[in-house]
Amino acid sequence: MSAEPAERLRRRKVLFDIEAKVEKLQDHQLSASQLKNLKISVLPMVLDEKSDLKPTFFAACPSVPELDEFDLGEYPSAKTALQFDPSGDFVRPLDRAYALEDYLVHYTCRCENRKWLEGTPTPWSGGCVADYHPFKSLYQYSDPEFGALRLTDIAGKEHPHMKAVIYNNIEENEQEYFRGELLAILRLMFGQMKQRRFIQHMISPVLVFSLMGIQRARVIESYFDGENLILRSTGLYDFREKDVKGLKDFAGWWIGNPIGDTISSTGRAHLSIHTDGRIIVIAAASETRYIVGPVTRDPGSAERSETSPGKVYILHSSTAGTLHVPIEGPQRVTARRRPDGCERCAIHILLLGDGGRRQGAD
Predict the structure, then answer these.
(1) 20 to 30 Å CA-CA from 264: which of 48, 92, 189, 215?
(2) Residues near 28 by Cβ (< 8 Å), separated by ≥ 6?
(3) Taking the chain, what is the end-to-end CA distance rounded to the nearest angstrom?
(4) Residue 255: its pLDDT value, please?
């Protein structure tokens, strides 16, 4: 059995420290600034394969059956539940999470059965929480409760990816993240990294479908980049009434395949570049001495060369994230808006070689 790489051991220790700090928190809802102090970075994400903000390590199933192709029973409308139970005893966030997950599991299981019959089964196995042994418990029974409703991973040693449906018995808040969400993510991630079958993988991505409030939900893709826990989150979905597109989005990404480079320690490394007291962040493709040219999600596709004094290089990026450019000697770095005519990116970063002199940003 191969020995664990030193870099991987270091990453596990950092994750262990982050989890310990989150566990001790008294606050159950955390802002982006609070998360930053915990080495947790928040970035946007959308469940759209055509978008540059799509998940990095998880793909959607290209063809998801329509809901009306199956007999899924009556949709668990929150309005109907409130009419049936005006006192609210059975419309806590926890109760509505169970009702929504019951509907979702019927739909996704039928989608998986369809793919199996078509000869293209999904690689995911399991689904029962009791089948897994994460780093620590995924449940808190004191108020506010949180826990896992469903887990799935992939057999073998090729893919350390994991997916989970979790709940938090707390009102929805799009601007903040829940302590329960963070603990579930960190404990699942750390549990994967403890397994020797994944000893060559530096990254163990986790995709959580987080249910909260009165049938609200969001999807969060999480991975550790070597320095920070990255949370890429969608906005809130409203499932109080039947949202066909939202349900199909959830099903598509639940049964979709794993993707991305999880072995290379440099494929998703991140570093903030500080210039003139400001931090400039965009998405990086690879860790090289310099990254010059169009920056993409594919770790092997970025053009690379070294800079020279007085020459300007443009880094294109179409998504928010962090740029990793290990530079020997100071560089002048400045962010610009997308110029007219450039359809590739939302932000430009200019690196200007300056012969080793520290210069401020333009």
Answers:
(1) 48
(2) 144, 170, 178, 179, 180
(3) 52
(4) 96
Looking at residues 91-118, what average pLDDT do you find? 91
Say which residue the tokens 């397994």 belong to: 195
Give the span between the Cα atoms of 254 and 107, in whole angstroms.
11
pLDDT tens across 335-361, in order?
A: 444 444 444 444 444 443 333 332 222
197 vs 4: CA distance, rounded Å: 11
Token pair of 168 as six digits? 């938090």
Q: Is 343 left (phi over 0), alpha (psi -120 to 50) or beta?
A: alpha
Cα–Cα distance measured from residue 100 to residue 128, given in angstroms and rounded to the nearest whole number = 17
Q: How many residues does the chain have?
A: 362
Neighbours of 259 (CB within 10 A): 15
User: Who's near 248: CB < 8 A, 6+ residues apart?
Assistant: 64, 66, 67
Enter the tokens of residue 184: 């579930």
Strands 229-233 and 40-44: parallel
Condensed to tens digits (0 to 9), the pLDDT of residues 233-289 reads: 999 999 999 999 999 999 999 999 999 999 975 433 333 333 232 333 333 333 222
Rounded Cα–Cα distance for residues 232 and 167 (Å): 18
As a whole number of angstroms, the distance between CA 286 and CA 201 comes to 16
